[in-house]
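Appendix B. One record, verbatim.
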Amino acid sequence: MSLRFRSLTTRAAVIVTAGALALTGAVIATAGPAAAADPTWQTVFRDDFTGSGLPDPNKWILTQGTSYPGGPDAFGTGEIETMTNRPENVDVRNGNLYITPQRDSAGRWTSARVESAASNYRPPAGGVMHVESRLQLPNVTGSEALGYWPAFWMLGGPYRQDRWSWPAIGEFDIMENVQGLNWTYNVLHCGVWAGGPCNEQEGINNGVNNAGAPCKVTTCQAGMHTYGLEWDDSGPVEQLRWYLDGELTFTVNANQVPAATWNSLADHAGYFIILNVAMGGAFPNKLGGGPNAGTKPGVPMVVDYVEVKYAGGSGTPTTSTPVTSTPTTSTPTTSTPTTSTPVTSTPTTSTPATPPTGGSASPSALRVSGSTSDSLTLSWQGSAGASYEVLRSGIRIATVTGTSYTDRGLFPNTPYVYSIRGGGVTTPELTATLNGASASTSTAAPTSGPTTEPTAGPTTGPVSGGPSGLKVTGTTGSTITLGWAGSAGASYDVLRSGIRIATVTGTSFTDVGLFANTPYVYSIRGNGTTTPELTARIG
């Protein structure tokens, strides 16, 4: 999966790799030597996706929308889906992560893009990094698979600072697949935007006759397979190696490209991991197009685990220890992991917990019972033995047994909207805001119809040219349009729950992919001024 428009038209090419003769076809390098036998591996990251609900926010970012703020439209690939954090698009259950494309009655597609919080994965100096996932591709083939584009890949961390730094900062497509075909496509993207030493925007890849390495015994769609990448810095020439079920499928050596090209992809803090299922775009278009009316929605990519481990080396290996707060994806750095915007989607449909004998499972009297500088502890009345769903901005973030829950990794001066569901009852929403190590709260009953609710929030002193008068100027069934007073030529940050989701020139912004009866908390920042927060709902 990449930020390019791929062509799989074959062309003559001969590339020599270490100890092997190259093949002809799309730009390709042949398998080279494997890693040293039985290295001593140190696991620096692993997620087996235990529990339920959304992926662990300390490990994963859920990038939303149709592009990165300030980056190319449609993620640079022409894909047509909107990425969300809705449980029907992304959830953890039964020990797996599910990423599920969905299509609504109007034909609009949604899916999910799950990124590692850490963006510094690279081998220790003189050592080896191995990145692996065991997963099952969406189990759909033929005409029903048209437009499906699942991928497991890595992107250079500097991209989180500069959304136009691709492909120089590097991209490793560990597994890429389209149209339900039984193969894994391996690609290195590097160099310049078009042509160059890496033959962009095809990249250096294992594609021959419009196919990659096939899955054996069971197809890639019919069962779980492991997909891996090794970056080996232990020899005289750095090497990238791709694996399918432990078998080497593709190799690229550093000396296949100019030294400056390799240094550009290798000499930075490292890479972040991405798992996603795109719909449509340049790659599917090359192999039959889609999606169309016959494409089957609701077929997930199922991920058993993701693991990063290191071996050897004289340097200090990087680790995946994430920050404890939840920063935005729009202003990241290469050294501090980023996370997604706060959860704002529609809750899943669930069966209320059955009240245990001798007590009522219906929750009531939701309150904040404790706080730290980055956490809020919620408590409520109910049964200590009952199961409750904790909702934040209308979406389930946890299921607990008992009558308390601590939400961690929060920002100060940012409103978080909670409710508790169980026994067929959902409490009124409680808005809590951290102020240092203490918290302020307010409770409001649900409202109906499009509404805007001013809420107390931090604001800086007025500065000439700063935004003011924030209001909702329009809504649809899935959008809210904001307007404010300011300079038509000025640049403003749009904040949702205190997190920047866009930077615009002008005095209006439309937030898309929203859900009814869900509170969205907005403010506008510019020229040293931040407006008071405005809470808006649809329906």
